[in-house]
Design brief:
Structural class: alpha+beta
Strand content: 25-35%
Helix content: 25-40%
Number of strands: 9
Distance between the termini: 48 Å
Radius of gyration: 18 Å
Order of helices and strands: HEEEEEEEEHEHHHHH
Shape: globular
Largest sheet: 5 strands, antiparallel
Length: 213
């Protein structure tokens, strides 16, 4: 991965985000933690997340995922997840980059993609190692923070490049699957939105079933 990850770390630290993680580039967020955290439940929106430094653990349903530097996590729909930063300190904080999935941009990209869509199994997330081409595309996008006057004109194209590289990676089938119109996936998304609106409240399975009609 040459020096791409260290360069990304330098950019993240140079452009520390607002408390909500937002940066000057819409749809691009940074995570910076200089200490470990307790497990926290939240809804994870559709996105790609690449860990640059430190370690994080995420639990989705019965699956426990650990993200080390270079790990690439992809979520194609909103998912309730419990996460905790396991490795971070002031000298080497936990650093990660996330980019929300722009559905219109993804649809435009897939419209010119000749690869047949994979059989759907309603899986909504995956994890793998970020390939060099994807890290390079992320570096091109994040580097715009050093040229704020160019963000409006160039960020959409560089975000498109990130999605293209993601489509060419091992995560490509998951992206293609997400673009399919599938009743099971749609019903799952509806149930998750109901969970989002009731975090911290008891919610019976029967209620979720009724909300799906």
């Amino acid at each position: 991965m040459d020096d791409t990850i260290p360069r990304l770390c330098d950019l993240v630290l140079a452009h520390r985000p607002r408390p909500d993680g937002a940066t000057a580039i819409a749809n691009l967020h940074f995570a910076v933690f200089d200490q470990t955290t307790v497990p926290t439940l939240r809804v994870c929106d559709p996105m790609i997340c690449v860990v640059l430094q430190g370690m994080k653990e995420v639990t989705i349903g019965a699956e426990i995922l650990r993200f080390a530097p270079g790990a690439c996590f992809l979520s194609t729909m909103s998912l309730p997840a419990t996460s905790a930063v396991l490795r971070a300190d002031k000298r080497r904080p936990y650093l990660a980059i996330s980019m929300g999935l722009n559905q219109d941009r993804l649809a435009t990209l897939l419209a010119s993609d000749a690869t047949p869509p994979p059989p759907t199994d309603a899986r909504a997330f995956g994890i793998g190692q970020a390939p060099g081409a994807l890290l390079g595309a992320l570096l091109n996008l994040v580097a715009l923070l050093d040229q704020p006057q160019d963000i409006a004109a160039l960020a959409p194209g560089r975000e498109h490049e990130v999605l293209y590289r993601l489509l060419q990676s091992d995560q490509g089938p998951l992206l293609r699957q997400a673009a399919q119109s599938d009743g099971t996936t749609a019903r799952l998304a509806e149930a998750i939105e109901r969970i989002r609106g009731n975090l911290g409240k008891p919610l019976r399975v029967e209620e979720l079933a009724a909300s799906r009609g």
